[in-house]
Amino acid sequence: MLGRTAAVWLSGVMASPIEDYALVSDLHTGALISRRGSIDWLCLPRFDSPSVFGALLGTEDHGRWLLAPEGDAAVVSRNYLGPTFILQTHWATDTGSALVTEFMPVGDGRASIVRRVEGISGTVDMRQELEVRFNYGTVLPWMRRDPDPHGERLLAVAGPNALVLRGDNLPTAEDHRHVGRFTVSAGEHVDMELTWYPSHFEVPRLTAIDAALAATTVYWETWADHCDRAKQYEAPVLRSLLVLRALTHESTGGIVAAPTTSLPEIAGGERNWDYRYCWLRDAALTLEAMLGHGYEEEALHWRNWLLRAVAGDPEDLQIMYAVDGARELPERILPQFSGYEGAVPVRVGNGAVGQYQADVVGEVMVALAKLRDQGVEEDHFSWPLQRSLMTFLERHLEEKDHGIWEMRGDPQHFTHSRVMMWAAFDRAADAVRTYGLDGPVELWDALRDGLREEVLNRGFNRERNSFTQYYGSTEVDASLLQLPQVGFLAYDDERMLGTVARLEKDLRTDSGLLLRYATHSGVDGLEAGENPFLACSFWLVEQYAATGRAADARALMDQLVAYSNELGLLSEEYDPVHNTMAGNFPQAFSHLALVRAADALNTMAPLPDQGFTASTGSSEAHLPTERSR
Could you report the per-residue pLDDT of 161-209, keeping only the tens digit for each? Predict the structure, then answer.
């Protein structure tokens, strides 16, 4: 069991440790449910909507829905029902035991969450507390009981939003919250459903709970059955792919980076960002992970989202968009929240939306090239769009950028960004030569080759025998591990091995995990200090696997997988000092990096471990070469 002991819920007390949360999703939004039975985060009806339950970032007065046994109770087990997002929690008390099943129905076009309590043995006294707070905890709704053809219902209305709660033993008003108690005996069950709807609509009909549970189970099981299973790390790979699917909006195809905002990267720090949007980079990398396991349909769905989102003048290209492709994502601070464990500010929107990040087009072009290589043909819109992206890169060829880590300091010529620009021109030229698409291939060849020469001359420090974070810097950056991933040079190139040795020396913590970069350098314009970023360590697994360091690769992979919570979910970062998760949760980037690392281990040549000498950066394994041109 990872992390700290879960806090007992008292008025104004902190939320649970991040690793104590479970995600349930209906492919439009997602709820976080703690081990103690409290829904502490839920935005309705979309991932990027204002929260209805926001206790995660403050107190219960910012909204939550608690359902748990009264008095002393223990969680015997908690798991998903097979390859689904149907959560089951087995509770035990002095008088009996009960099973709580919670899920969000998929495919019915509603925004609902269902909770079922089943008596297993003896009797169990249950308690629920419902506190609805619309608009990020600031709006107390008007609530009333109403007659219903199937019994009573509890309505909550405020402005454009409304909720209806149905079920036996509805809670009653008590100090700006609704509290209810009931007893469940062996063989009995109690159902309840909370549904969001626009307040000017009629109240939605009652859901047939058994049918919704069956349909949701079938959906997730069918989706999982299409997966090309990994030979090693099958369970974490499948769960990671399921998380990526759960974070994909069913209607639009947009993939959010995480369902949460402002979970801090370091305890009490200011690195608190809103991840409930669709980054082109993250989504492109997700597409690659999906393609590697048989999910071409999902990849096409995302391509269509991309086409709609970036359509228009290439100069208006953004690095992120809303779930529906909307462009306006202004960053603002929500002072009503005290922050997760006191970490402020709490932000919504994201100021990085206006940054120029030169790597993004490269990641998109690499992903779309893989889609072509899978046999998916370009249509009348998709290739012209890619040509417009190349025109955008041509116009910004010499411009400094903010890089993959969205630095809030001065723009630089980040080495990773320049390599990803190289990858963009490389894939565009290949599309013309290999697939007969139209385009200025000679120009793209020249720009690609010029960028390669530039990176090798200005991005590599010969004295330190490593690539550097940006031109003129002596620091390294974990994003340099992506250079061989896109074919810029071979994994076993001496320059790459020297870079890995520098990363291990400068950025690897005592725990063995890799930091993104040295925050004390001031390059990001923020206070120094953050926890290791899990995706970077997964990239290191891939590098080890590709250079014959099999034992190192497997040891680090096992360590990283062990950081998952009991449900297989990963956060953005991990705090090895306090043995707890950090950052937004669950994090798509961490899960897609896990899939990629597992794929590298599964395709690793069955060679003996060659070992590695950090002082020389030498390895004798036979490795893939750089991308041929």
Answer: 999 999 988 999 998 899 999 999 999 999 999 999 999 999 999 899 9
Q: With contact defined as beta carbons under 8 Å apart, do 204 and 197 qualify? A: yes
Phi, psi values for residue 449, rounded to 5°: -65, -35
Angstrom distance (rounded) from CA 88 to CA 117: 10
Find the DSSP H helices in 480-587. Answer: 494-506, 534-546, 550-561
> pLDDT tens, 86-112?
999 999 999 999 999 999 999 988 999
Q: Are 110 and 104 in contact, with CB atoms under 8 Å apart?
A: no
Tokens 């968009």 appear where? 321
Element (H, E) at 278: strand 278-279
Cis geometry, peptide bond prior to residue 586 (ω within 30 degrees of 0): yes
Degrees, nearest 5: CA angle 256-229-305: 25
What is the pLDDT, as a whole number, of residue 605? 55
- What's the rounded Cα separation, in Å, for the pair 443 and 460? 25
- For residue range 398-415, list pLDDT tens digits in order: 999 999 999 989 999 999
Say which residues have a Cβ less than 8 Å from residue 471's Cβ, sequence separation at least 6. 412, 413, 415, 458, 459
**How many angstroms separate the CA atoms of 187 and 257, rounded?**
41
Q: Cα(484)–Cα(543) distance, rounded to whole angstroms?
A: 8
358-367 pLDDT, tens digit per residue, is: 999 999 999 9
Residue 134, beta-bridge partner list:
139
Alpha-carbon distance of 628 to 488, in angstroms, equals: 9
Among candidate residues 170, 250, 164, the one with its CA nearest the CA of residue 207: 164
> What is the C-alpha separation between 341 and 318, in angstroms, rounded?
32
Q: Residue 477 has what DSSP assignment?
A: B
Q: Indicate if the pLDDT at residue 339 is higher than 90.
A: yes
Instruction: Tell me which residue of 373, 397, 587, 597 sits closest to 485, measured CA to CA.
Output: 597
453 contacts: CB under 8 Å, gap ≥ 6: none
**Rg (the chain; Cα; Å):** 25
Q: Residue 612: what pLDDT?
A: 33
Model confidence at 620, in pLDDT bands (50, 70, 90)?
Answer: very low
What residue has token string 């929240």?
337
Separation CA 75–CA 92 (nearest Å): 6
Torsion angles phi and psi, residue 62, rounded to 5 = -95, 10
Reduce the DSSP state of residue 342 to 3 states and report it.
helix
Calculate the dihedral angle through the C-alpha atoms of 404, 355, 56, 3, rounding to the nearest 10 degrees: 20
> What is the distance between the alpha carbons of residues 24 and 21, in angstroms, rounded to a whole number?
10
Instruction: List the single range of 6-10, 297-301, 350-354 with lowest mean pLDDT.
Output: 6-10
Torsion of CA 590, 505, 554, 286, to 10 degrees: 20
CA distance 260 to 560: 22
State both tokens at 564: 């998952």
CA-CA distance, 88 to 80, in Å (whole number)?
Answer: 6
Neighbours of 174 (CB within 10 A): 10
Amino acid in position 200: H
